[in-house]
Amino acid sequence: MDEKQQQKMINELEGSDRELSGLWAVAVIIVAVFMSAFHFYVAGFGLPGIGSKTFLIFHLTLALVLIFMIFPIKKRMGQTNIPIYDIALAAYAFYVGMFIIQRQDASSIMSGDPTGYEIFIGLSLIILVLEATRRVVGYPLVVIAFIFIAYFFLGEFMPGQFHHTRGDFERFIYEITYRNNGIFGTPIYASAQFVFIFILFGAVLESTGAGKMFIDLALRAFGRFKGGPAKASVMASGMMGSISGSSTANAVTTGTFTIPLMKKVGFKPHVAGGVEVAASSSGQFLPPIMGAAAFIMVELTSIPYYEIIQSAIIPAILCYVGILFMVHFEASKNGIKGMDRSELVKGRRLLMQQGYLLIPIFVLLYFLVIERVSVNNSAFFSITILLVIALFAHRFKESVGRAFVFAAILLGLAYSIQFIIQYVNIGLYNLNDVFNISFFSSETIRWKGEIATMVLIGIIVALVFALGQKKFKVDAAPVRYGARELLSGFELAARNSLSIVVACATAGILIGVITTSGLSTKFTRIVVGFSSDLAALVPSFMTTENTELYFALILTVFACLLLGLGLPTTATYVVLAAIVAPVLVDMDVPVIVAHLFVLYYGVLADDTPPINLPAYATAGIANAGPVRTGVQGFKFDTAALLLPFVFTMNPTILLITDAGWIEVTLAIITATIGMVAFASFIQNWLITKYHWIERMIALVVALMFIQNNVWTDIGAVVIAAGLFGFQYYKSKKQNKEVTAKAS
User: Where, by residue number, does the polypeptide cross the bilayer (predicted)?
Assistant: First the structure.
């Protein structure tokens, strides 16, 4: 499956089978590339003289225009052009956006008394957002939005804690569209400021062929072991998933290579697809990017970035350990071996060929963790150095002299343009007097001296790798990066962002309803009261000091799975972080714990049948049924099902306590044993097949590790050791019986 077919599959799964050609296709490319270039420029230089609210409105407006150009009114229409009604919708969306930008500081808006026409435009924006969400994300989130809107207007008829008397139509439109706690609230701010630029980073990295490199590296590391291709799939998808905001796109990109290999060594088609589903989605847990969730978490929690990735790293590794053991048990049950060493690419040769694609990731970490530069600037510099390296890697290999001249010119421009721009800005500023306008400022166009440094580093890296390839006779990277690949990456980023943009806008409607109706102050009391009622039903000898919290967490899990159905994982986290996480925080759960808890179960919702798009993607590649594939994906993800309960009850593994390294190590070991025990319970296999009693013992061991108590931990370790010993004895006995029969 080539890149065009991959993108076609992703588009169809996400609701667009409109295949444009000619001028229509060019128009879409122009808008998409402009959208990406606009965000890239803002990430690096900001927008002088333009407020952040204007940026958010323009961000959403471009997304709406692009959605009505790309996504048909319903699936499987087979359109090859943009119908007149969608052209009208795109044009009207642009008009609505520009009107709100123009009127955002009007006296009627600032005083909270909008005119009738401003109310009409606000209503239009809500309808456009919901229709765009329906086309891109599907019905689940739209239905939830309508339920919240209905609650706002019918609150006076609701009983008990749900009662309110704030259901005024004009107030609703004003709060949702013109204030900062509705559509243009925190979710869309996170989408515009953080998510998009990292989707762009991932798309550009993908356009360089990095996905294939990650797969080859993972195969080299795990391919020869039992069930090797599946284990390699887990690792490769984890690396790609961390930088990708779309589990569906990740599943298609890596699954195209890994699923056929899994089938080749003996995995059933639906199992191979399920492994890829679990691995692709769980990449959202993995630092440094966490599918952009890390940066949204910074905004929502005010916790520094380095503290968030420090807390997230151990659970993320444990999650992948759980999936790897699920794969290992699956391979053991079915006698699936690994690949022959001769089939694997040599690691050193691969790193020499494409290892330079890892440099931008290290640059990103350097700026974020060491220099602690802003998130946007860090991504901007990383994309800049990535583009330079990708551009020159092939060209230095082909002709050092010619490429060196080109590189010198580019470096000279990157350095000197900061001085030239001063005079350009003076000229633009003087145009204000000529045309009697106030549009241009003294900093209309910006530049940064650090760009020249990034260009220089990129050129040096590309030259070193090219000379190394020549010396050791290593082929150049498969992708020769040029203008076509650049435009493809920028277009792909805009397309991949659309589901997140409109989902975040719709999430803003939900948050606006919760805030305006007063439900935000009641929601915690409702959950706590219900949890207390459930805890009261438990016999006293079975209760602990955490019983009430357990029930609250279980209710939270169901809320996460419900609200996350059919949503992109990043958008799911935004919704859950705004609605559900505050409840846990109000119950004295640490902020970072609450947000990681909802993130984990929100991502799991993406793998929950029947609405799990990654399963439909991998099922198509594996030639398997999507429902069976989805069930398998959920099954492989359940290895980490109890992990959020573990770190909620024992935050030591999040590195947020004062515990010493011995206590942290013990917490990691016990959590790992618990996850392996739970994985073995799910797979009904440890060293050999479980008897049902052994299987129940494995479940008890896993549950005992949830409770943060030294005695339950010791007891669980002893039982686990006994279970392992019995399984080992049982396996040896079975092998002897087989040998005796064979002789």
Answer: 21-42, 54-71, 83-102, 114-130, 137-154, 188-205, 312-329, 350-369, 375-393, 405-431, 451-468, 498-519, 549-567, 574-603, 638-657, 664-685, 697-726
Sign of CA dihedral 31, 34, 40, 45: negative
The torsion of the CA quartet 569, 488, 622, 79, rounded to 10 degrees, works out to: 90
With 0-12 / 13-18 / 19 or more C-beta atoms within 10 angstroms meaning exposed / middle / buried, residue 708 is middle
Give the model's pLDDT for residue 15. 60
How many CB atoms are closer than 10 A to CB 410? 18
Average pLDDT rounded to a whole number, residues 202-217: 87
Q: How far apart are CA 72 and CA 112, in angstroms?
A: 37
Q: Is the pLDDT of residue 554 over 80?
A: yes
Containing structural domain, residue 88: 3-188
Burial class (CB in 10 A: 0-12, 13-18, 19+), 607: buried
Q: How far apart are CA 489 and CA 499, in angstroms?
A: 17
| pLDDT tens-digit series, residues 415-430 | 998 888 888 888 888 8
pTM score of the predicted model:
0.88
**Domain total for the chain?**
2
In this structure, the answer to whether residues 592 and 648 fall within a common structural domain is yes
Helical segments of 623-691, H only: 626-637, 643-649, 661-683
Q: Specify whether 531 is located in the same domain as 631.
A: yes
Q: Could you give the CA distance from residue 171 to residue 11 in angstroms, rounded to a whole number?
A: 38
pLDDT number for residue 159 = 85
* Alpha-carbon torsion (93, 96, 98, 101), positive or negative: negative
SS (H, E, C) 233-293: HHHHHHHHHHHCCCHHHHHHHHHHHHHHHHHHHCCCHHHHHHHHHHHHHHHHHCCCCHHHH
d(CA 325, CA 595): 26
Q: Which of 124-133, 185-194, 686-695 has the lowest mean pLDDT?
A: 185-194
Lookup: tokens for 538: 């438990």
The verdict on residue 461 lying in a domain is no
Strand (E) positions, 335-463? none
If residue 461 lies in a helix (H) or strand (E), which one and from where to where?
Answer: helix 450-471
Q: Ramachandran region of residue 312, left (φ > 0), alpha (ψ -120 to 50) or beta? A: alpha
At residue 475, the pLDDT reads 85
Whether the CB-CB separation of 288 and 53 falls below 8 Å is answered with no
Would residue 314 count as lying in a domain? yes
Report how far residue 183's alpha carbon sits from residue 126's, in angstroms, rounded to the nearest whole number: 8
443 pLDDT exceeds 80?
no
Nearest to 59 by CA among 567, 574, 502: 502
pLDDT at 49 over 80: no
Task: Find the helix packing angle between 692-704 and 710-742, rounded to 10°.
Answer: 150
| In a shared domain, residues 305 and 157 | no
Bridge partner residues of 689 (DSSP): 685
Question: Please, what is the average pLDDT of the chain?
Answer: 88
31 and 167 both lie in a single domain: yes
